[in-house]
Amino acid sequence: MLNFKIHIVMGFFDWIKTNWASTEYKIEGNMKDLQEIYDLFYKFKKGEKKSFDELADKEWEGNIVWALGGDTKDFYIRGFIQTCEFEEGILSIVADEVEGGTTDFRKFLENHYEGMKVYYIVEDKENERFLTNDREHKYFSYPCILHSCVDDKMDLECFDTEEQALEYFAKRLKVSSLTMEEVDEWSEKHEDDEKNYVYFNGYEIID
Q1: Do 21 and 100 meet the contact criterion of CB atoms below 8 Å apart?
Q2: How many helices (H) and strands (E) does the chain have?
Q3: Which conformational region is residue 127 in: left (phi greater than 0), alpha (psi within -120 to 50 degrees), or beta?
Q4: Considering only CA atoms, which of 123, 173, 129 is closest in space to residue 151?
Q5: Of 14, 20, 65, 158, which has the fewest Cβ atoms less than 10 A away?
């Protein structure tokens, strides 16, 4: 038991040192199943149900996995639920997760409940990782992210469309307009120049 608790504590400090990402979930499924997840979260949050361990935070996603019969050692659960809402037949969860997009919380839910579908979107601005499995923009409308450096002046901006991003970057370069081909040419020209670069980071679509 002592070694187990040491492992948990060490894991906690690893989380502090690791980069965090914001993950938002939109979950479809049987109303009874969605209600069960919602009720479990608030039972843990209000202290009506004891957490997995005395060292486990009330908002830890692993509490729900454990309560539903999952072995937390079998899953990579590294997130804490910030908000949980159940409205119009959709369960909405916002969580802070280590290495967002790689945790097993959503995978466990889809495997545990028949017919459940978990849509999600991840924003990891520090590492410039933007991920989603919502290919059809069913729940999430995600922007075009422009990360640029011109004459050693870095900038990170989000835009609704690629056209808006191009217009903004044109102003940074003090030209009237730009095409993506011209941006590629500019980028190739400054390929080895650390003071001048540009990245158009749209959301990566993953399963």
Answers
A1: yes
A2: 6, 9
A3: alpha
A4: 173
A5: 14
| Beta-strand pair 204-205/129-132 | parallel
Per-residue model confidence as pLDDT tens digits over 86-130: 999 999 999 999 876 667 999 999 999 999 999 999 988 777 778
DSSP string, 33-85: HHHHHHHHHHHHHTTSS--SSTTS-TTBHHHHHHHTT--GGGS---EEEEEEE
Distance CA(123)–CA(203), nearest Å, equals 9
Q: What is the rounded distance in angstroms from the CA atom of residue 159 to the CA atom of residue 143?
A: 5
Residues facing residue 79 across a β-bridge:
97
Alpha carbons 150 and 83: distance in angstroms, whole number: 39
Count of CB atoms situated within 10 Å of the CB of 36: 17
* SS3 state at 132: strand
Q: At what angle do helices 162-173 and 180-189 cross, to 10 degrees?
A: 50
pLDDT digits (tens, 9 = 90+) for 10-31: 344 444 556 789 999 999 999 9
pTM of the full structure = 0.70
Amino acid in position 9: V
